[in-house]
Amino acid sequence: MTVLEKINSPQDVKTLSLQEMNTLAQDIREAILNRVNTIGGHLGPDLGIAEATIAMHYVFDSPKDKFIFDVSHQIYPHKMLTGRKHGFVDSSRLQEISGYSNPKESEHDHFVIGHTSTSVSLATGVAKARDLKGDNYNVIALIGDGSLSGGEAYEGFNNAAELDSNIIIIVNDNEMSIAPNYGGLYKNLAELRNTNGQAQNNVFKAIGFDYYYVEEGNNTEKLIDVFKKVKDTNHPTVVHIHTLKGKGYEPAVVDKETYHWTTPGFLNNKEASVQAETYNSITKDFLLDKKQKGEPVIAVTAATPGVFEFNPEFRNKMGKNYTDVGIAEEHAIAYASGLAQNGAKPVLALMSSFVQRTYDQMSQDLALNNSPATVLIYWGGISNADMTHLCTFDIPLISNIPNIVYLSPVSKEEYLAMLEWSYNQNEHTVFIRVPSTDVVSYETADNTDYSQLNKYKLVEKGEKVAIIAAGNFFGLGRQVKEELKTQLNIDATLINPRFLTGVDFDMLETLKKDHSVVITLEDGELDGGFGEKITRFYGNSSMKVLNFGSKKEFTDRVPLEELYNRYHLTKELIVSDIKGIL
Amino acid sequence: MTVLEKINSPQDVKTLSLQEMNTLAQDIREAILNRVNTIGGHLGPDLGIAEATIAMHYVFDSPKDKFIFDVSHQIYPHKMLTGRKHGFVDSSRLQEISGYSNPKESEHDHFVIGHTSTSVSLATGVAKARDLKGDNYNVIALIGDGSLSGGEAYEGFNNAAELDSNIIIIVNDNEMSIAPNYGGLYKNLAELRNTNGQAQNNVFKAIGFDYYYVEEGNNTEKLIDVFKKVKDTNHPTVVHIHTLKGKGYEPAVVDKETYHWTTPGFLNNKEASVQAETYNSITKDFLLDKKQKGEPVIAVTAATPGVFEFNPEFRNKMGKNYTDVGIAEEHAIAYASGLAQNGAKPVLALMSSFVQRTYDQMSQDLALNNSPATVLIYWGGISNADMTHLCTFDIPLISNIPNIVYLSPVSKEEYLAMLEWSYNQNEHTVFIRVPSTDVVSYETADNTDYSQLNKYKLVEKGEKVAIIAAGNFFGLGRQVKEELKTQLNIDATLINPRFLTGVDFDMLETLKKDHSVVITLEDGELDGGFGEKITRFYGNSSMKVLNFGSKKEFTDRVPLEELYNRYHLTKELIVSDIKGIL
């Protein structure tokens, strides 16, 4: 029997000997490897935090004492110690437990969390509520693994320091973000590590925290000693622990970036298949070409270069023409505005879910200044993602900001034409929704001057029904056209709108002549999205309009097919809806 | 002839003697007082920065050297020294010059800026572009007066520290934000002031900046000395200057908060009229009542308590049940989620323009957790504001986030009923758009349980035309109804939707029976807003729908009447549009 098998709640941890705790850490690592190898997930961060989590549960009394996990991608060990180990050891039940903090799973989780840098702010609120009510317990935030660079974290630290009561912030310093750390703060962490916490420059002390350093952050005994010291303290305290990301699985220690998050099967050394062309490779080739021509191109990411396959080889080739700002999306946008206004050619790459951090920067720093930056939005669209990582909201988020041009290519050729146009122009802030589909080749050489804003492309002229199919759903639009022909013998019109930010008044007006129904297809939330702009245009006419896209809701790991059925995003369901109003 | 009269460009500053520069500072102060007393504006911040601005222009070479002003509400002296003094001394031309940085006004301004905490990020981009192109000059950001607490500033500092080249950040430490400073960082600034810059704890050094301190930040000579030292430096540098906010106008020195920004006529000691009841006073009374009952209410603001008239008297009465987090809107939202999840009753007050900072926090920290916080959005609606301070975007911003309930009261009674309901419930994250109108009394005692989401209120049942008039525009809706009666003898239906976040399917369905036109009125941007949801509902029917609101555009100090005409937001224009489709 493993030690982990005996653990059903944090109470069971408190009865263990030190030796048993060390064995438990190994059991936990095996369980992490089992889960991630089977269904994928965060590997390096969780392997590194096993001892600290055990020590936390040994010293503190969860759920009375409240643990708040930043990003919560380091929460696997905590889940195993709080009644959810079946999500890691029982291969038939892995999917029952999510990879993130979720109060619906356990009273030991206090928030749904998935984006970075929120824990200190949330914990400050929890602690302040405790004080207002006159209660008495510990509030502990665990932050690190790159999250310290986000502005929300800093705002949280700044205000947590004002609490005249207990808050304990454990800074898990594993020398990494997702990619290597970047920024002045991380220099200070290094200085503190190199001096065993004694460096004169100490950003935490500077803003008012009591400070403890634990060099051996994977040593349960030493962690327990320090946690005991800070338990029940009556003032804001930082415990800086130095851990080894990936500990216990050597490849994850050696290549921390690759094994931060991984897909299933990595233990079996699945051979990487020969890479077909992807929109990632197309983007990288475009950027390298500009760099090689000596142009002032600059690729900018915010801590997730892996999403775009901006691997070390690519980064080395780009050299000073590449900046990873760390987890600091707001800065990335404003930085791009500064770059663009001073004659450089910034191309930002951001995930749809994380661009949510930057509404005000998109509006004030970029759009209001018409700064000619190019921002690439990746992974936009409906998916089976965790509810914290949905990518369905970027069209409502971005497309209603004045001045921004949001383009939605449907093929390789169109994507490249849009990139090239955006890169070379100086009048507009341009966003491009990189297709989430496989690469489709489809010549659109005509009309690649996008400076005539909001000119849609009439792909095939028909009658009765017009299909305006944006981006990822252009293929679905074609299918609907074919289905209309098959089922109803209707030769529908097919339109690629290209622009998500406006309406082609002339084209829509023309459609009134020989169409009675217009449908819109967009791979994202309908509320506030693209289709509603079309519907509003036709509000004063007899044109009937149906909008297809996702509902306004947070979905949590719902299979894509189920969502497509729910939202009527199949050719059969769409044609059926059209029949209903013809 | 004053010294200021002789200054037509920064070149003229460079020829002045120290004594002339000191006289110039006085001339500048008089001009500031003249402008602000005539048309209103930022007083304290600009009075305090006169000497520093003169010294900057004396030492550096604008526009080759690039000054980037944070918030840019401290830019008046810079404007006077760069060819725009007529906007301060010539009473007939004050309106020609805006109160914020604007490249269209002068080559000495590099960005449109109005929100806080952006300057360091923008400057980092400008400097990096300079380096990529192999150019050589100084990039100087002037930040302070509270802006340091914003997360974007911190992200900027963190990454500016990585520049291996020139960037100079002048931290204007006037011991104030708009209201008094809050947060750990400001404790460190105080420590540095108290030690003449020598304190061991130094947050700027900790993250990698070279650091200079100027205690006499209103002493031109000392400023010039230090600026000369750091000019052309090849690494990131902070110059921390200690200035006196309001210098030269004693009331603004004594009461820094009141005179941060002021309306015209303050020099004449305009007597404050007896305050009528306002939505501000209603809100304060509500909060104080909860506090006096011993409830765990907590009012939260982000550095702009004056907007809500949360004056020192109110703050003192609220005591520990009030937190001003400083300029840190993201933290404010996450903090509220922590408070709400732990049983306190947070009521946040935010300006529409500044809630833009928090999309991701609204979505992830609040909505995804259904945290029962109440967020009050002030000043929402179309106005003659500067383009940086528009309040027309909050409905598209907030209303498309799943789970959020965004309420739009039309009267005092309804506002109080909504506040009370939101405060007492535990299921939803609730936003309330505080009316921007005068207080209207209008009994809505029936149906004040808003937990039945998206139930609209049928105010007057009519036929043919239905008017769905939200929030501030409910009064306009009434006017339209009367005008329809007068002009067309139509008894229109009048609906108060109450909810901005959803559609009352039953009521809209019922309208189909005896209405052929529905119009929506909302005080904000149409794209992605409330009305489009109604239009989408009717897309598959023969109902005609007209949406009235503002266009997707940044407007800059355009008179309200002009905007109302542009957007057809008068009863005459609306009825004319209705006639066009009846």
Helix content of chain A: 25-40%
Q: Globular, elongated, flat, extended or rod-shaped: what is the shape of chain A?
A: globular
Radius of gyration of chain A: 26 Å
Tell me about the biggest sheet of chain A?
6 strands, parallel
Subunit organisation of the chains: homodimer
**Which residues of chain A sit in consecutive blocks of at least 5 with pLDDT less than 50?**
none
Could you tell me the strand content of chain A as a percent range? 15-25%
- CATH hierarchy: architecture of the largest domain in chain A: 3-Layer(aba) Sandwich
Report how far apart the termini of chain A are: 67 Å
Give a brief description.
Chain A has 23 helices and 18 strands.
Verbal overview:
The first copy, chain A, has 582 residues and is α/β, with parallel strands linked by helices. Chain A folds into three domains: 4-267, Rossmann fold, CATH 3.40.50; 279-433, Rossmann fold (3-Layer(aba) Sandwich); 457-581, Rossmann fold. Helix content of chain A is 37%, strand content 16%. Chain A contains 23 helices and 18 strands. A six-stranded parallel beta sheet of chain A has the order 9-8-10-11-13-12, with helices on both faces. In chain A, strands 2-3-4-6-5 form a five-stranded parallel beta sheet, with helices on both faces. A five-stranded mixed beta sheet of chain A has the order 14-16-15-17-18, with helices on both faces. In chain A, helix 18 links the parallel strand 12 and strand 13. In chain A, helix 4 (50-59) packs across helix 11 (220-230), helix 15 packs parallel to helix 16 (359-366) and helix 19 (474-488) crosses helix 23 (571-581). The radius of gyration of chain A is 26 Å and the shape is globular. The termini of chain A are far apart. The interface between A and B is large, with 118 and 118 residues.
